[in-house]
Design a protein that fits this description.
Elements: H1 7-15, E1 19-23, H2 27-40, E2 44-47, H3 50-56, H4 58-70, E3 76-83, H5 86-95, E4 99-102, H6 109-124, E5 129-134, H7 157-167, E6 171-174, H8 191-200, E7 205-207, H9 215-222, E8 226-231, H10 233-250, H11 256-277
Helix pairs in contact: 2-4, 2-11, 3-4, 5-6, 7-8, 10-11
Length: 283
Amino acid sequence: MLLHGTDALKEAAAAGHALPGFVAYNLETVQGITAAAETAGRPVLIQAGSSPFKHAGREALMRLALDAAAHSAAPLGVHLDHSRDLEEITACLEAGYTSVMVDGSHLPFAENIALTKEAVRRARDHGAWVEAELGALPGDEDVSTDAVAQPTAMTDPQQAAEFVAATCVDALAVAVGNVHGFTKDPIRLDLDRLAAIHDVVPVPLVLHGASGLPVEELHGALARGVAKVNVNAELRRAYLEAVRATLPAALPGSDVVSLWAAGRDAVRDAALDVIGRLTPRAA
């Protein structure tokens, strides 16, 4: 079933949990994410967004994600991740996306506000909620690299308060030491900065780049207002490792179905593991 509105996001924030956002690239990753949500019985966001569109095509991937969510017994939102294009945002809203992320983090502050306000206006017309980003998150969304957080690019708490008040966004993605992709050394979040943002921002916070994040850091973020967590690289790695393990037996008979099935099931299992980590043991 399609997960509309911000209730799940707000409930997660109130309970110290987080709504997982899993990036989907193709049929098998959509199926794996959906199966994980059904097994866990937890709300999940299928993030079929700007970067995966380059591979699968916007219309095809939109329809895959929306159809899977609509026909699932689990509550599944379909979310546009990291979009800088108002035309793309509008197309996804018109198709039935339940939420969108407008990414103006590369813009000067005033321009980010202007872009985000327009995205919020368009989303309200379609009953969707909006996530925005303030601060720069290093690393590639699709290729895991040893990205390093830059202290000067982290989210400023007072600027975050001004941004949310000016734009009326429903959730704010922040940069507090998190990066896209895996890193050689464990990531340490600036939890004091995150707490300061939480103190002055009245909406749930979002943590991008959670793949490989130590569980104590993750739970520290959940205790400081993070109610949505994005995971991509963990699912990609699980998919590729499953394909690699299956390939020797599949190659002689050109058995592509076994490869796809192995990748799908690996994505499901990786997503289930993340869902478990997003529920702190004390809950």
